[in-house]
Amino acid sequence: MLHHFALRICDRHFLIESEDDESASLVRAGFGAMLVDPSSSSPLARRYHVGRAPSGPGFRLATNDDEPVQLEDAGDLLFHLDKDLTIALQLQRADLFFLHAAAVALDDRAVVLSAPSGTGKSTLTLALLEDGFDYLSDELAPIDVQRLAVHPFPHALCLKSPPPAPYCLPKGALRTGERYHLPADSLRGGARTQSLPVAAFIFVRRGSRTTAAYRPITRGAASAHLMSNALNSLSHPAAGLDVAALLSQTAPCFELDSDDLGAACHAVRDILQRDVPSRGN
To answer: What's the whole-model pTM score?
Structure first.
C-alpha cells in the first residue's frame, strides 16, 4: 500500500510517498508535526519516494526523478531525509537566514539557541520542554530577517544519548543505532507550527569558568557567533555579514552555560521575562 504524506515547512510543501508500513511509520515519527492535507493545492517544492530495500535489510530513498539511494537502516533513512529537506529549504527560501540552532517558545515569544554540534542543544531543548516551553526545533532555525521571526522545523528531537537525571526519554522515543528520536507529539507541550517573533539569540557553551549561567554579549561577538552558525550566509548581502550585524542589533544576544541544565532552563526563562540591559558595541 502506498502512503502519501505532505509536509509544510517555511510555507513550502514537500510530498513523501512510502511503499510500506514500516517506512511510513518512520516518516510519521520523524516529521509528524509538519504533516498537512496531501490534497493541498500549494506548489510542490520536492517529492520523495521511500521504501524497503529490494533485497536485504535497509531502505531506499529517491528524490524527484533521481535514482534511489540505498540506506543501511532506519537511522540512515531519517538522517538523509532530514538533511535533504534542510538543503531543499535553503534553495526554496534563500530569503531566510538559516542557523544551526534550536528554538523554543514561551507565551508566543521564541528564543533561538545556537551552537556547534556536540554542545548539548538538543538535551537543553528537551530540558526546556520539561520546564514548560514549546518546541519549534532542535537544530534548524530559519530566520525571517525583516520580521525578526523564526519558522519552526519540528522534526523529531534527536539525542545522541539519554538525558541526565532527572530528565528522561518520553514514551514513544525511537532508538536507531546510537541515536534517540523523540517524535514531536511525544514531547511535553507539543510543537508550534507557526512562525514566532524572536525575543533573543542565545549562544550555548559548555565548561565555562564563569559563575554566571548567562551573560549579555556585544554586537560584535553576537555577529561572530551568528556567522559561525549560519548555513546559507552566501545567499545574503556581504556573505551574510549584513544580516548578522542587523540581527545582533535588533534582538538581545547572550552566552549561556549549559552544564547545569536546571540553571540553564532558569536562565532562558529569566532572559525572556527580564528587562533587557544595554549592550556594548
So the answer is: 0.93
